[in-house]
Write a structure and sequence with these properties.
With 338 residues, the protein is α/β, with parallel strands linked by helices. The chain has 13 helices and 14 strands.
C-alpha cells in the first residue's frame, strides 16, 4: 500500500521517489558462494528511462509488450519520441496507440503486424495517413500467425510452418510467406519468417533491480504475449510499476516469468502504461483515449497533442503531472502489491 508521500501532488515525488533515488545500473551486490570459492557477483540492471531508451538504435526492429490497448509501455514510447529515434521497424501481433504515436512522430519506417487501431476509440489515424501516403511499409500477417513468428524466434527456427492462413490473400500479398510442400504429408504448407526483434520492451507490475519480473497469478492475453515476446530476443527492456526487493520476488517464485538472465534493463515507471490499462492495477483512461482519437484525426491536432504531453514534458514525471494526480488515483482499481 502506498503511504502518504505517494499522494504529494506538487511534483509526484511520492510516485517517483524510488526511481529517483535508486542506485545506478553499475551498482553491484555480492553474495557468498556455497563452495568456498570466489564470491558470485550480481549486477544491478536498474537504470533511468532515458538510459534504457538509449539502448534502442535507429533502424532497430522493436516489439512492444501488451495487446491492443492493454498494458503498453507508453512511457517508453514517449521517451523514444523525445530522443528522436528514426527508421524503426515495429514487429507485433495486435498494435494500437503505442505504434500510432511513433508513426505520427516520424519514428517508423516499417510495420509487421495484423492490426493497428484504437479498438472502441476508433481508427489509428496517424498509421492510416502514413500507410495511405506510402510513407511507411506495412506487412500484413494474420493475428495468430503474427504471434507464431515470435514463437519461431523463441525456438531459433528459420521459419514457422503453417497449414492454414485463414482463407485470405495474405500469402499472395506478402512475399515473405513462402509456400512449400510438406515432406511428410505431401500437402501444401507455408513458411512464415520469424519475428527477429532486436529489442523487446514490456511493462509489468513489479520486479527487482536485477531484472527478475513477477507477473500476476491471474493473467490475460497481454501477459501471455509479454512472456512470448521476452523469450524471442536477447535485449529485453522492462518498465515496472514498482521495484521491490529480491526477497519479495522470492516469496512467489512461480510468478517470476521473466528471470534476471533474460533482462538487460529494468526501470521503475509508475503509471508507465497510461493511458492503457494494467491488469489488476489501474483501468484505461478512456477520457484520454477519446481526446487522443480526436486530436490525431489531423496531423495538426496530433502535433498539438505531442507538444502538450511529450515534447512539452521533460520526462515521465512531468507527464504524470500534466495528467493530474486526481485522475490517476481515480483509475486505480487495486492496491499495488506489497
Amino acid at each position: 500500500m502506498w503511504n502518504r508521500s505517494h499522494m504529494d501532488g506538487k511534483r509526484f515525488h511520492g510516485l517517483s521517489e524510488m526511481s529517483r533515488n535508486r542506485p545506478k545500473a553499475d551498482r553491484q551486490s555480492r553474495r557468498a558462494s556455497t563452495g568456498g570459492g570466489p564470491a558470485l557477483v550480481r549486477t544491478s540492471k536498474l537504470c533511468s528511462l532515458s538510459d534504457a531508451v538509449s539502448a534502442v538504435a535507429d533502424g532497430d526492429r522493436i516489439a512492444f509488450g501488451g495487446f491492443a490497448i492493454y498494458q503498453r509501455p507508453i512511457a517508453f514510447v514517449h521517451e523514444l519520441i523525445r530522443q528522436k529515434r528514426r527508421d524503426l521497424t515495429i514487429v507485433g501481433v495486435v498494435n494500437a496507440n503505442e505504434t500510432d504515436l511513433l508513426v505520427g512522430a516520424g519514428c517508423v519506417r516499417r510495420i509487421e503486424t495484423s492490426y493497428v487501431g484504437l479498438e472502441s476509440f476508433g481508427l489509428a489515424r496517424n498509421f492510416r495517413r502514413a500507410a495511405e501516403a506510402g510513407e511507411i511499409e506495412v506487412v500484413d500477417y494474420p493475428e495468430l500467425i503474427a504471434w507464431d513468428r515470435f514463437r519461431a524466434s523463441q525456438e531459433n527456427l528459420p521459419f514457422w510452418p503453417c497449414t492454414f492462413l485463414g482463407g485470405s490473400d495474405v500469402a499472395q500479398l506478402n512475399p515473405d510467406i513462402i509456400p512449400f510442400t510438406c515432406p511428410v504429408t505431401g500437402k501444401q504448407m507455408w513458411a512464415v519468417p520469424p519475428a527477429k526483434p532486436n529489442v523487446v520492451v514490456v511493462h509489468a507490475i513489479m520486479g527487482d533491480e536485477y531484472g527478475n519480473v513477477a507477473f500476476p497469478a491471474r493473467r490475460l492475453l497481454p501477459q501471455s504475449v509479454d512472456v512470448t515476446h521476452t523469450r524471442s530476443c536477447d535485449k529485453v527492456i522492462v518498465t515496472v510499476e514498482r521495484i521491490v526487493s529480491t526477497e519479495e520476488i522470492k516469496k512467489h517464485p512461480e510468478l517470476t516469468e521473466i528471470p534476471s538472465f533474460r533482462t538487460t534493463h529494468i526501470v521503475e515507471v509508475p503509471y508507465g502504461a497510461h493511458p492503457t490499462a494494467v491488469l489488476g492495477i489501474y483501468k484505461s483512461d478512456d477520457d484520454h483515449f477519446r481526446a487522443y482519437a480526436e486530436a490525431s484525426a489531423t496531423q495538426q491536432g496530433f502535433d498539438a497533442y505531442l507538444e502538450e504531453y511529450v515534447h512539452g514534458t521533460r520526462d515521465h514525471h512531468e507527464y504524470l503531472e500534466r495528467i493530474g494526480l486526481r485522475r490517476l488515483i481515480a483509475l486505480r482499481n487495486v492496491e499495488l502489491p506489497q
